[in-house]
């Protein structure tokens, strides 16, 4: 595969994006009833869009627009030109549906192949694909991308953790992909069988579909003996492979902006924020055919940056803080679960398997209960008999330390309850929900 586009000079990249945006607007002006209406409402003439800088003149597209046009209202090709359809599970309303032409499926495979390459994977390696197959874009997306790169794929899907571990031991894949929370479950299963990292064939883990922080990366890398990197994407845009970390750089992900043009908008004013500041990621699909989207409001909070370690020219995004919907407001302080995760990672001995329960008083969230596991080895190293008062005092202080750390770093009051390692429910595959029902 040719990865040279990742290294285009910035002026060439802007030129390419400009040409693609102009073509896209023409294409939508011809084919999309939805966007034609939007252009008319906003008084946009096609000639107003000449370069990528004109993107801010264009309408923003929201998830609600997909729901209002359910199922195929935003498609710009007839049904017989589709090659694939994916959709969301629809647990929070009408499912959102996305269609792909053959060209779109090729594009999807290409950006996933690029992502796997950045993650360290090479042609000839074997992928243990534990993302869910089905209407979710993770399984098939990674599958086609890995094949495009020249890898072999075991399409195991999520769940049945004991079988996952058996087959990793027997088949010896170099690469695994799944959600980070499921990677933790798999790592725990290895540990419970007494299998150490150097006995596991895996070298690279390609993890995403939910927010995660350095503490989870650290656990997975240590327990599985891998480079763990972050893959981001959403079905409305294409699926996984919108952005990807490089395994030698880590810390942030390149956005494949020759196809997915990013902007960061202020969540309230919906205007662009100064470069580098945090806001909602909004993406324009520059090259998709069956369902191109202009300025799609992902609802994910992040910021963009360049750094001097970057091998490629494309812009990077910081790890997603969370979805705007997952934000909790605790006594007026806005907080995302990932910030809590980051805060408790500063306390030694924490296992990052946790659940948050908002506590309400008069319909206002006033505090958070946190259920959290403590590392077994860390407990053993204290040499305190767990049946004694000394142990309860130790655990009490451990919990207090975490509460203080969260107060200091996030500014909210929490009540931390410590549990033995492996005693809280684990991720059984797929995305985990760390926020429990309000009390
Ligand atoms: O989760 C696609 C995907 C599959 C990405 C496999 C990565 C790996 P959706 O089900 O449409 O698609 O969910 C998209 O998940 O808007 C984010 O809120 C969240 N998300 C996805 N990747 C990440 C990530 C897939 N790396 C929604 N970090 C997105 C944080 C992520 N959040």
Hetero compounds: 5'-O-[hydroxy(phenylacetyl)phosphoryl]adenosine
Question: Which range best describes the helical content: under 10%, 10-25%, 25-40%, 40-55%, 55-70% or over 70%?
Answer: 25-40%
Our count of helices gives 11
Sheet-strand content, in percent, reads: 15-25%
CATH class of the largest domain: Alpha Beta
Q: What name is given to the CATH topology of the largest domain?
A: Rossmann fold
Question: Major β-sheet, in short?
Answer: 9 strands, mixed
Global outline: globular
The number of domains: 2
Mean pLDDT over the full residue set = 96
Q: Say how many strands there are.
A: 20
Instruction: Provide the spatial order of strands within the biggest beta sheet.
Output: 4-3-5-6-7-8-9-14-13
Query: What is the name of the CATH architecture of the largest domain?
Result: 3-Layer(aba) Sandwich
Uncertain runs are none
């Amino acid at each position: 595969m040719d990865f040279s586009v990742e290294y285009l000079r910035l002026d060439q990249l802007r030129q390419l994006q400009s040409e693609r945006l102009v073509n896209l607007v023409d294409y939508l002006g011809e084919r999309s009833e939805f966007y034609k209406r939007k252009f008319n409402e906003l008084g946009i003439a096609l000639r107003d869009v000449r370069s990528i800088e004109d993107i801010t003149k264009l309408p923003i597209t929201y998830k609600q627009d997909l729901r209002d046009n359910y199922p195929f209202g935003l498609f710009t090709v007839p049904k017989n030109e589709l090659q694939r359809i994916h959709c969301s599970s629809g647990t929070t309303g009408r499912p959102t549906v996305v269609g792909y032409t053959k060209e779109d499926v090729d594009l999807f495979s290409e950006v996933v192949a690029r992502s796997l390459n950045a993650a360290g994977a090479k042609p000839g390696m074997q992928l243990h694909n534990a993302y869910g197959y089905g209407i979710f874009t993770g399984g098939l997306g990674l599958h086609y991308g890995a094949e495009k790169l020249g890898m072999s794929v075991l399409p195991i899907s999520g769940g049945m953790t004991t079988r996952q571990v058996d087959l990793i031991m027997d088949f010896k894949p170099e690469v695994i992909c799944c959600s980070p929370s499921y990677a933790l479950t798999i790592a725990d299963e290895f540990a419970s069988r007494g299998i150490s990292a150097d006995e596991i064939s895996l070298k690279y883990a390609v993890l995403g579909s939910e927010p995660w922080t350095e503490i989870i990366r650290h656990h997975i890398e240590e327990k599985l003996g891998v480079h763990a990197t972050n893959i981001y994407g959403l079905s409305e845009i294409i699926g996984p492979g919108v952005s990807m970390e490089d395994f030698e750089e880590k810390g942030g992900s390149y956005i494949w902006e020759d196809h997915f043009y990013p902007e960061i908008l202020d969540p309230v004013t919906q205007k662009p924020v100064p470069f580098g500041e945090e806001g909602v990621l909004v993406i324009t699909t520059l090259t998709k055919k069956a369902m191109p989207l202009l300025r799609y409001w992902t609802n994910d909070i992040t910021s963009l940056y360049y750094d001097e370690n970057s091998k490629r020219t494309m812009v990077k995004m910081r790890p997603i803080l969370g979805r705007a919907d997952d934000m909790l407001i605790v006594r007026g302080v806005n907080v995302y679960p990932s910030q809590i995760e980051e805060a408790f990672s500063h306390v030694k001995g924490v296992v990052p398997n946790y659940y948050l329960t908002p506590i309400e008083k008069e319909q206002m969230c006033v505090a958070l209960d946190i259920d959290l596991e403590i590392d077994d080895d860390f407990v053993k190293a204290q040499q305190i008999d767990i049946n004694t008062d000394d142990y309860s005092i130790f655990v009490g202080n451990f919990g207090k330390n975490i509460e203080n750390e969260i107060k200091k770093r996030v500014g909210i009051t929490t009540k931390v309850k410590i549990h033995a390692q492996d005693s809280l429910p684990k991720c059984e595959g797929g995305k985990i929900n760390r926020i429990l029902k309000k009390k």
